[in-house]
Predict the structure of Multicopper oxidase.
Amino acid sequence: MASWKFKSIIAIGALSVVLAGCSGSMNGMDHSKMNMEETQASSKTTNGQTVKPTVLTGKEINLTASVSNQEIAPGKTLPVWTFNNSVPGPQIRVKQGDTVKINLKNQLPEPVTIHWHGVPVPNAMDGIPGVTQNAVQPGQSFTYEFKTDVPGTYWYHSHQDSVNQLDRGLYGSFVVEGKNEEKVDRDYTLMLDEWMSSGEMSSMNMSGGNMSGMDHSTMNMGHDMSMYDLYTINGKSGSLVDQLPVKQGDRVRIRLINAGYLSHQIHLHGHEFKVIATDGQPINNPDILKDNVISIAPGERYDIEFVANNPGKWLIEDHGNNAAIKGMKATIAYEGAAAGSDKANESEKLAAVDMSRYGQAGKANFTLDQKYTLEYTMNLNTEMKNGEMVYTINGKTFPETEPINVKKRDTVKVRLVNNSKTDDHPMHLHGHFFQVLSKNGKPLEGSPMMKDTLNLKPGDEYIVAFEAANEGNWMFHCHDLHHASAGMVTELKYTDYKTDFVADPNAGNKPE
């Protein structure tokens, strides 16, 4: 498995922008009235090719995976792997209840798949090579077809040798618009990521596909993430990041998606806001916040909403102490605002929103003390084995980890414990949402919280619960994909599920 994290860009209109119902913005485009297959103005890559727009709608979508080069930071062009010649790939935007067909064509030098992160698809559509399908070979195609029943903010990415292929740029956002969701004036998506900018990399030729043999899945070396020295929003860093235009009085929704391998502390300047959803699932009666950061871990999504009631130019930015953070900021620009902007303050210490106490208690699916069909403990740890750093679940690495065996309609309670001394573990369950019941021994006090990705800091213990309501063989793994590729993966297996999938030993399937 070969990985390294240099991902890339494309002019994402106004940040993978999706203008939900705004009449005067983004060159006058109003996405609420558009039903075309593609929207937004074209832009050019550094290859000189004209790129199609970055929002795709409709019930049939075409995605082509191919090699490109794109400018990530001013003067810094990197080789990338792309969907539809851009990183992030186009936002796919569908309506609740749609049956969508997505045709993947592989023009890369290596096999590829697509996983629909957070979307409860049928198991055969989950995109896991060797588990639900064979990896799509160079020159070949595969069609994903599923119904989008659950509205929310999701994303898609390759799950073939994913620690490397995400690093190269194979991801995009996926939004399911709810039938009854309230309309906003502006709807923006910000995909967060990290890259390596070393000169050697930027001069490498990726067309051969082996990336000079660099393999980040085995590059743990104590899991040093400082190699990622370039942080991006929608594939751009620093002055290349697109502004977010607003008008006074606009109701603005920002969808934050972490496509990288590090957590980010996102701060909205100058405005009160609410966190209205996590991992696409709504928060009950969210509280008003100001000058808090949202801690967003790899694989997680947070939707925030605010009213544009403070004219000027305001930042939304990452907070922390390393130099790369300076590149992860975007400007919210009011129409007619004077030149200049508020000052960056990325080193300011601000409290993170405590999601275990956020929002208002309400009707929940599960309780801590009810009887469950199955209870299971996952002890997550970091160990040295045979001179290499590995990441274990109950002392074992995948594929030796013991699966969680269930039958349909079982209720399952899982205790997750992070015994690693320094590493976070954002654990992602495919095909299901789980309810978070407690954190570090304390029951959740706020809104019921449904998630598919949950970050455990060192020493954290969470209890979660879900119903086995989506038959199949599903991955449950850490979404710091360095950890997954070094062992931190198990499976949720329905013992009463029969698949007709047959793995091809010649397909080169690499599920992590």
Summary: The domain at 31-183 is CATH 2.60.40.420 (Immunoglobulin-like). DSSP finds three helices and 35 strands in the chain. The helical segments are 162-168, 199-202, 481-485.
